[in-house]
Structures are given as C-alpha cells and as structure tokens.
Design brief:
Elements: E1 2-6, E2 9-12, E3 41-45, E4 48-49, E5 59-71, E6 74-75, E7 78-82, E8 87-96, E9 101-105, E10 113-118, E11 121-122, E12 126-136, E13 143-151, E14 163-169
Antiparallel strand pairs: 1-8, 2-9, 3-5, 4-5, 5-12, 6-11, 7-10, 7-13, 8-12, 9-10, 13-14
C-alpha cells in the first residue's frame, strides 16, 4: 500500500487503526508486550539518495528503508528526519508492510522537521520505507547532508544501526 501527498500537515492511509492505549513495554506480561509480541526488535535504518550527482534546481529523493531484523515484532516505528539545508520540501511517500502510517511535514517548498509513524507492528524480516523528495536550492559546491533516526515502542537491542547519514555535493 502506498500514499503520497504534496504540502504540509499530516496525511493518513485509508485503513488507519486507532491505538488501544494498552501498556506497550516489554516485560509487563512475562516478557511479552500488550500485543503478545517478543520483547525486542532490532530496527535497521539506511538512507539511499536517488542520485549522487545533483545541480541547483534538481529533485533528489531519499529512501529510508527500515528493516525489522527481529527477533520480535517492532511496534509503532517512528522515523525522524528533516528537509536538508540547501533544499526545500517537495513530497513524501510511505510504502511497505503493513503500510499503515502518517507523516507530519513542512509545507510544500518549506523546510523543517519530518516525523513519520508506522501505526501498526512490523514482523521480523519486513521493511517499511519512507521516500522524501526535495528540491535542491543550494549553489554549486554546497554539501547537502541528510540525517535520519528510527525507534519503536518495542525495545531495540542494537541502537547503533538506528541512525543513517548521507552527503551529496551540488555540482
């Protein structure tokens, strides 16, 4: 399932399910969370630019694939990123399993923070991907750096692979 939106504010997938308000910490039920899931899920984040050569005025898309390496399900993953300095926001798209999610973004052609929520749980060995497209406004010689971080309600045994950075020089 996939959904796109230009502009600011939030966007929602059609099959949004509300949260029950149950306590979601591991260990509260003999090592299981409120959903009966395992106690940990190792999230693994990368950032992949659509191109390594950009010019002022070009669009560049950053893909942020988030994998659940297991052993348990990851519940309510979050991706935090921003419109990189030297660019403006164009659009954002979410895809993956199960594909339910929301993002808060700056307005079209704006700058600022982006927060995306995957509003369900992700089984081990599945991927949830956010794609951010921005327009390059920086002049030649400028280094554009994109950073991101991910987390979930489920405890993560390896936080070292929850952040990613990529830099591109404007030609």
């Amino acid at each position: 399932m996939e959904f796109c939106r230009r502009g600011g504010g939030k966007f929602f997938f059609a099959h949004h399910r509300g949260r029950s308000g149950l306590h979601r910490r591991a260990g509260a039920n003999g090592g299981l969370d409120a959903y009966g899931l395992g106690p940990e899920a190792d999230l693994f984040l990368r950032v992949q630019p659509s191109t390594t050569t950009v010019h002022q005025g070009d669009l560049i898309t950053y893909a942020f694939p988030i994998w659940d390496l297991g052993p348990g399900n990851a519940v309510h993953e979050v991706l935090n990123t921003q419109v990189p300095e030297g660019t403006t926001f164009d659009y954002i798209r979410i895809s993956g399993t199960p594909g339910l999610g929301t993002c808060t973004t700056p307005p079209y052609q704006g700058t600022g923070q982006i927060v995306c929520h995957e509003n369900s749980s992700m089984a081990p060995n599945t991927t949830w991907t956010v794609r951010l497209t921005v327009k390059v406004t920086a002049p030649s010689g400028t280094v554009i750096t994109e950073n991101a971080a991910t987390l979930a309600d489920t405890p993560d045994p390896n936080l070292a692979n929850n952040t990613a950075t990529v830099s591109t020089t404007v030609q």
